[in-house]
Design brief:
Helix content: under 10%
Radius of gyration: 17 Å
Shape: elongated
Order of helices and strands: EEEEEEEHEEEEE
Structural class: mainly beta
Length: about 180
């Protein structure tokens, strides 16, 4: 079970202050489709252990940053067989690669929201990744929400399994991070 809050060290002078992440009101979820030719199903899961160092100010995008670290062994979709397999060598290979990490390199405005540009590392493979998100601010409380996709084959997730052709290549990600 994650702690109730993630607290990060103070920011450097002039940089945005670190968010105090309310993990009870935050989540990182994933969803995929399974189709074996006879039946089709959608599975939704989440990562139960992760931490975030977010220093974001919409008025100071140049100095904003984010590093999100996800413990890959914490992936669960509630199906016992999947929950046993996801940390295994064919999927996240959590023994060799215990963390997936997103590290921002730039933030920019896009329409009514923002995009965090950065690098996503899963299973030791790093790829450029853009994470679109919206932000709602109410006093000291802020909520960031995002819906995006990741191509699991870019990271060799599931490529050597019998289920590779039955599981959607694009995995939907849903992220909600609340700042208290």
């Amino acid at each position: 079970m994650p702690p109730e809050e993630t607290v990060i060290a103070p920011a450097e002078p002039g940089a945005p202050a670190a968010w105090r992440v309310d993990t009870r009101a935050s989540s990182i979820g994933f969803a995929f489709d399974y189709d074996d030719g006879e039946t089709s199903s959608r599975f939704e899961g989440r990562f139960t252990r992760w931490r975030a160092d977010i220093r974001f100010d919409p008025d100071n995008l140049a100095a904003s940053s984010a590093v999100v670290t996800i413990e890959t062994a914490s992936a669960t979709d509630g199906v016992a067989m999947h929950d046993r397999a996801l940390p295994g060598p064919e999927w996240f290979d959590a023994a060799a690669h215990p963390n997936a990490v997103f590290r921002s390199t730039n933030f920019r405005r896009s329409g009514n929201g923002y995009v965090a540009e950065g690098e996503l590392t899963i299973r030791g493979r790093t790829r450029d990744y853009e994470l679109p998100f919206s932000l709602t601010i109410d006093g000291d409380r802020a909520v960031m929400t995002s819906a995006s996709q990741v191509d699991r084959r870019d990271y060799d997730i599931g490529k050597d399994t019998d289920a590779d052709d039955m599981i959607s290549r694009n995995i939907d990600l849903t992220i909600r991070v609340a700042r208290t």
